[in-house]
Structures are given as structure tokens and as C-alpha cells.
Amino acid sequence: MKLFDLRSPIGLLVRGAAAPLAAVLLVPGATAGAQEQPAPAAQQPAPVPQGSNVPPPAAAPVPSEMELARLIWSTMVTIANANGSGNYTVLRDSSATGFQIANDPSKLSQIFAGLRASRIDLTTTLLTAPSYTAPPQLLRPDVFQVQGYFPLRPRAVVFDMAFQWQNGEWRLFGVSVEPRIIASPQEQQQPAAE
What we know:
Elements: E1 12-13, E2 24-25, H1 65-85, H2 89-93, H3 97-102, H4 105-111, H5 113-118, E3 131-140, E4 143-150, E5 155-166, E6 169-181, H6 185-189
Antiparallel strand pairs: 1-2, 3-4, 4-5, 5-6
Signal peptide: 1-32
Keywords: Signal
Organism: Croceicoccus marinus
């Protein structure tokens, strides 16, 4: 299964700790092997006439290292607040439109039930910089994906996030968060028992 399938503007479903680590795009009626079809000419945007006062759509800026960390930290804090209060409205409402369409607050509560049950304090991710397992990847001109973890002990917090440029800012488009136990350096270096 692809991590992100961006053939539809519907939005991404998020997952908590109970589901496998992946964010899945909800595409009604789509099949796994479907090919992306170009939009018919009638649906393509009309060119802006010369001399009109209509500005071109804003180009999505490449986030700096600090901006990227801020996006990740703010997402962690928003999820932590939603898990603590049981109210996922702010998480939903601060996300990209497609995310909002695909996820109502009660659905987000169900999705994050496993993460809530793990009782991990996601605000501790503010104490350290995120470590990246891959460089940020542009999935389409207005969406990028970033994967990594916060090296906390005894449980690291692994994340996989996508952000969409919308209304002049990066907004959450998909998220996956999972606590994982990390072996201590001594356990990693011990030879296997024979």
C-alpha cells in the first residue's frame, strides 16, 4: 500500500498507535491499481488574462529547518491537547481542508484511541529536536511529507506527517504518530547468546 495517494483532494486519514504506521488517503471508489487520469479540459483552470488584477496562486515556499521543526512540534502539541481533553475539534479545524472533510472530531477520537491508551506525553517532544529518517519529500507542488522520530527514553515517538500549502501557510494534511520502545545502547551492543 502506498503511504500517500494524492489522486483525490478529499484528505488524509490519520492514525494513532493502534493501527499500522501509515497515513492513508481516502479515495471513494478508487482501486489500488487505478491510474491517475488527466483532468478534462473543462475542469482545468482558465489562464489569467494579461493585465488583469488577479494575482497568480501563491507558490508554496520551502520550509526552513526551523519552520519544519515548528510544524512538527505544533502538531505534536495539538495532538497532545486533543488526547488530553478528548476534544479533536482544534486538530481538525487547524488542518488542511481535505483533512477536515475526511475526519470529523469523533472519527479522530477513535483513530487516536490507541495513542491515548499508551498514555505517552507528546509534549515531551518539545524537549528535543526531531531526528529525520528521510529528507522531506515533495509529493506534489503543494504537499510535502516528512518522516522521523523524537529520540526519547524509554519510548521514542515516531512520526510520519504531510503538510499542504493552503491560504498562505502549511497546514496538516496527514499524520501518523506511534510510541516505540528503544533498546539501550548496552542492549544493542551485547552479542547474541550462543
